[in-house]
Amino acid sequence: MNKDPFNLVVCGVGGQGNVVASLLIGAVLVDQGYKVTIGETYGASQRGGSVMSHVRVSRERQYGPLLPPHSADLLIALEPSEAVRVLAQFGNPETVSVVNTRPIHPVDVICGDISYPPTDRLRQRIKSLSSTAYFVPATDKALEMENPLLTNIILIGAASGVGLLPITEDALAKAVKDYMSVQKVEINRKAFRVGTQIVN
Amino acid sequence: MSMLSLDSPGTEVLLMGNEAMARGALEAGISVAAAYPGNPSSEIIASLAQVAAEMGIYAEWSVNEKVALEVAAAAACSGLNALCAMKQNGLNVASDFLLNLNLSGINGGLVLIVCDDPAGISSTNEEDSRFFAKAADLPLFEPATFHEAKDMVREAFELSGKISSVCIVRSVTRISHARGNVTLGPLPRSRPLPLFPTTRMLSALPAAATHPMAHNRLRKAAEILESSPFNRYEGPENPELMVITCGSGWLFTSEAVGLLGLKSRVGILKIGATWPLPEKFLLEHLKRTEKVLFIEEVDPVLENNVKELFADHNCELPRIRFLGKKSGAAPDVGELSPALVMGILGSVMGVPPTEKDKDYARQASADLHKFAPARSLAFCAGCPHRASYWAIKKALAFDGRDGVVFGDIGCYALAVLPTGFHQAKTLHAMGSGTGMACGFGILRGLGGTQPSIAVCGDSTFYHAAIPALINGLHQNSDFLLIILDNSATAMTGFQPHPGSPVDAMGHQAPPVAIEDLCRSLGVKTLIEDPFNLKAASDTIYDLLQEEGARVLILRQECALVRGKRAARRFNVSIDPEKCIGEECGCNRLCTRVFRCPGLNWNQALKKSTIDDAICTGCGVCVDICPRGAIIKESA
Q1: Can you give the CATH number for the domain in which B469 is found?
Q2: Is residue B595 within 8 angstroms of chain A, CB to CB?
Q3: Inter-residue contact B541 to B398 (CB < 8 Å)
């Protein structure tokens, strides 16, 4: 995080753990002495709609809960087509993207009104709109752990593993204990480790 | 663990705006907290209820906002500090009481937090609740950051105690549903014992005497707030432009001024205590500029109040050009954003938008819809509402008299969209579907022929539909009230309601059964499971043929609530031999019309499939396939 403010977007589909991901990232950074602001966009869209959290990190001051256009430094996308939606508004040539590979089809696609983009073209689009793009099979790994809800933590692990976020396994574990529950620490530690190993 | 009860003054933690306000109330030593859930306000009482036992306070989910305010007021009339929270629509419900409580005053402290929802992100409207403060002659605070949200609630309690009246804190979505650093203050542990002093009357009557007293209290508040630290100026001595802003507008404005390189030309006057206005403070600053821009969400409330103040003092002040919602410089609807505020400031100050990354922006938005397909709102996989509306649709089609369904507030309001097959034809306020259905049923006597149906959730029924049902019964209206009972206030986070066996704090509570209540009124009341599509549809049809007020409870637990405690009922699959896709003539009834997210249309195979990761195993789709291609087996 060599910028101030450092702007991160976590996006996905309602129910994927978007809010928890941004909360845990924010909690770790507040512990490190940063001023962190998280703006969440859900409302009625929590039911299968597009969701997005804006995380603003600064040593200087408390920033607003929404990013100015095209100012994202890092994008963590829990769903690939949502990555494209966010990059259109907040991406720039320097944005680094960490993207889960598993698509979630909108009800509009299920019913046949519109179609979902082919995987290779979607990846190409994300790459062309990012300085670097990491594609992480986070949900597949989470399903191997028999809990698809760990997708978000695996992605945080992946982003941290390649040095995009200053988060260690111990720091994440402390945030889980402080802001969620002590019972959830072990499984989240494991998911974080899985994430760091995928990209390494 | 909860950060809310962390007794560690000086520690910096990450709190949601709503949690920060709850913490502020704890630091002010509240004894009682009450609310009816509604976003973006729900986490205030939810987080207090979680620590209620530990902190020795009482927290409740009240039946509606008016009762919530009355519960809090009773504590505040007994010398305690009490918090009441609601969304903007809720204040409409509570306003009758509020506009009398302001006249009587209180004996303790009462802070009313109202969370507005600019752009109606989780609401039917985007009403600006601030005008209630002016109408009720009550002090109003508007926090601009999370830490300030906490401190303002604490200060509001202090002021409330000093003036013996209610103080209002108005938050918005971008404060309530955002998170930021909050430095914790001390938590008082001792609280006064409740005592209502019977030597004194707390009555609004007679208004001729109590109204002047309310004005006196507001004057006293104005004196105290004149030096409030929540009001401050940042910028050059004589700015070319002075932005007067409050609430979330302050964060967006201060960032935009920096990004546009306008710090030496633009000053920001942040008003935190917005009613009564800090008049001396404002007049002092207005002298220093010739141009003022107002940035606020949603209505020009601060704008109009400051202009009114200017008009009263125009002889002493320079000529000022006022820009804002009235002049057209800022939009008069919707919520603010950094892009919007940068655009307004840029155009007022003649700073053109940056051309940086123009190619990128063009490339990123080209054919966006092909790469980021629309995600329409839909009922969750296995949602009982989808089944209920399917049954209603079938019954109305079979009935053939063009029956009208009056909608209401909750997840099931989505019935105005394709996910609920467009079945609901109206959508307004809590309980208004039942009231309108009762009114429509009366039109039979004037030659109306269409059947009248109301849909109403369980929590909404207790909140506001009961009086309408009683009215319909007494007026002999012909209507069917269908209560979609999914066992929780699902839309706002599954809070308990009077039909639940537990209260907000998790204690056992006597449930008030909907059917017992309706039957006690003498209304014919039937119960069906919407997952049993045929029985539900047949019963609706039968009830439509009867006269008078009738009630049908369609009872099935919310799929999200059930998913947390129970395994799936069925393993559902599709027999690829039986599903003949577009050859069938069903026009893909399952994926195109029924539209459960657990079903998927396989473009390559031209057949329907089940997405096992999303399907909840309710098995309802089995009954809609005309070919019998969808199969369920007990899980």
Answers
A1: 3.40.50.970
A2: yes
A3: yes
Structural domain span for residue B210? 3-225
Inter-chain CB proximity B376 and A107 less than 8 Å: yes
B614: nearest CA in chain A? A104
CB nearest A68 (choices: B14, B180, B342): B342
- Find the closest chain A residue to B342 by CA distance: A68
Interface touch B378/A42, C-beta < 8 Å: no
Closest Cα partner for B114 from B135, B142, B134? B142
Residues of A in contact with B146 (CB under 8 A): 37, 62
Residues B408 and B541 in one domain: yes
A53 contacts chain B (CB < 8 A): no
User: Is B533's pLDDT higher than 60?
Assistant: yes
User: Residue A45 — very low, low, confident or very high, per pLDDT cuts 50/70/90?
Assistant: low
Same domain, B64 and B166: yes
- A82, A114, A129 member nearest B364 (Cβ): A129
Amino acid identity, position B45:
I
Long-range contacts of B89-92 (CB under 8 A, 24+ apart): B89/B38, B89/B123, B89/B124, B89/B125, B89/B127, B89/B429, B89/B430, B90/B35, B90/B36, B90/B38, B90/B41, B90/B64, B90/B65, B90/B114, B91/B65, B91/B129, B91/B132, B92/B127, B92/B429
Position A1 in a domain: no
Q: How far is A134 from chain B (nearest CA, A)?
A: 18
Is B459 a residue whose pLDDT tops 90?
A: yes
B175: chain A residues, CB-CB within 8 Å = 65
Residues B560 and B575 in one domain: no
**Which secondary-structure segment (H or E) carries B392?**
helix B384-399
Q: Quote the CA–CA distance of B239 and B53 in Å, as a whole number.
A: 52
Instruction: Average the pLDDT over B401-419 and give the result.
Output: 95
Could you tell me which residues are beta bridge partners of residue A75? A9, A97
Of B615, B612, B620, B573, give the one whose Cα is nearest residue B594: B620
